[in-house]
Amino acid sequence: MAAEGGGKEMNEIKTQFTTREGLYKLLSHSEYSRPNRVPFNSQGSNPVRVSFVNVNDQSGNGDRLCFNVGRELYFYIYKGVRKAADLSKPIDKRIYKGTQPTCHDFNHLTATAESVSLLVGFSAGQVQLIDPIKKETSKLFNEERLIDKSRVTCVKWVPGSESLFLVAHSSGNMYLYNVEHTCGTTAPHYQLLKQGESFAVHTCKSKSTRNPLLKWTVGEGALNEFAFSPDGKFLACVSQDGFLRVFNFDSVELHGTMKSYFGGLLCVCWSPDGKYIVTGGEDDLVTVWSFVDCRVIARGHGHKSWVSVVAFDPYTTSVEESDPMEFSGSDEDFQDLHFGRDRANSTQSRLSKRNSTDSRPVSVTYRFGSVGQDTQLCLWDLTEDILFPHQPLSRARTHTNVMNATSPPAGSGGTNPGSNGNSITTPGNSVPPPLPRSNSLPHSAVSNAGSKSSVMDGAIASGVSKFATLSLHDRKERHHEKDHKRNHSMGHISSKSSDKLNLVTKTKTDPAKTLGTPLCPRMEDVPLLEPLICKKIAHERLTVLIFLEDCIVTACQEGFICTWARPGKVGILSSQNQANSPSGTVV
């Protein structure tokens, strides 16, 4: 997207931008980096990543920030839009030899003002568990690299668990670990648990329980990123082979797949209600995929190079009743209209209401963002005319330009030929027939996603307990706990699957055979979104995009973590800090 004013402004870095909500402004005093503020020479280094956690301390300033730059790892108090960053006082700083940190994740369940559990993945394949508040290193996993020797691409705690975490590698493998277990002194031996189209899952054969509990082999080439659904039940993975694969995490069933237009997929995220997945990658596009219908519903073109991060903004995603001028919700919701945490929660509940009842028209707009190697930030709105195309596309639309929107209307009818061979008929509206698609799930299956029991009960009923190290009894007991905390038991997973005959194929998919199919529709067959804004905001490629309540956080490969205040969130204190901030700050 060309900048206004000709060539001179093309390379000018923007420090503010405007959307329908108002003015977003870069706060130079809230920039985090290495203490010397010198741009990092990023040649050959791993991407800069940022992780946040809130420790709920008494001061009201509970946000903590972790980021990696080259061989270094920093842990700071994050003051956001409220106060200037003090880079001279990191809570913890670590410099590694012979390997570099590549990714990290906090356990939000166990975090306190006195202790946090931070997982750090490394370029040589190890995973470290550290407590940067206590300045302790408690455990090192895959220390001898007997489990996997390739770079760690993504590490995340399993939602709702204090001990389970999942690690992806550039080998294309994922491993499920338990912090309480050791990794053993020999290479693990595996036993096949489940096999399907382009994936296989193995358990670890051992007399005593050891890590990894499970080994997933997914697709061809590196597994670049994965993301758990908001309810923790499903896992979306994107790989270098260009495929998005969505699994039921507990039953280890493949729910659906999607293929990039070309090249690898690099990033993935879920909408706040778990109904849509957005991916980005080497085709320079963002792609919106419907979890319910298992099909591509839109693509977005705005980047000039690879898309490195995609993320939904839960604070700007809006839900309105039939009268667009009337805000739907309580007075408390109305007070939090602009980016409040309650606003995000009430939005999510109303999003689920939108999909469970059609008696009352509701207007939905999802906001998501993307950053790329072209140093640009793009913001996108996913609106009614894209989400529900059986409504006339000619109706007045705001903030989303629909180009080539020639796709036939898509309804909610259809069947889901699941891996167990049973078809699920979707109760839908009487709308014109949809495009051919791989499968679809009923709305009820998704609107009940908050219930932890629906999918698992069936899985447990058909489960097997032949794995000596995996306790089915323990799994059942915990299943009935109120908070439903996951444990290491995998005995409930059925080893019988109609996918058994579909061996993990090592032959590369011919892009020409998928183009024009539901896996990868042609460009003219789905609506093409244009970004609300597309601004150059850094000198080096962008690697981080995080939406917080008061601000947006971005980071580039030079090691600068930038805070963009949301409209109306720059206070007097911030203005004073801005005036008193040291000169020479690099943006």
From TrEMBL:
Keyword terms: Acetylation, Cytoplasm, Nucleus, Phosphoprotein, Repeat, WD repeat
Polar residues: compositionally biased ranges: 437-453
Protein localization: Cytoplasm; Nucleus
Keyword Ribonucleoprotein: no
Gene Ontology annotations for the cellular component aspect, listed alphabetically: cytoplasm; nucleus
Annotated segments matching region Disordered: 402-453, 475-495
UniProt feature, compositional bias: Basic residues: 476-489
WD repeats: 258-290
SUPFAM superfamilies assigned: WD40 repeat-like
Biased composition (Low complexity): 417-426
Subunit structure: Interacts with USP12; promotes translocation of USP12/WDR20 to the plasma membrane. Component of the USP12/WDR20/WDR48 deubiquitinating complex. Interacts with USP46; contributes to the cytoplasmic localization of the USP46/WDR20 complex. Component of the USP12/DMWD/WDR48 deubiquitinating complex.
Name of the protein described by the UniProt record: WD repeat-containing protein 20
Organism the protein comes from: Ceuthmochares aereus
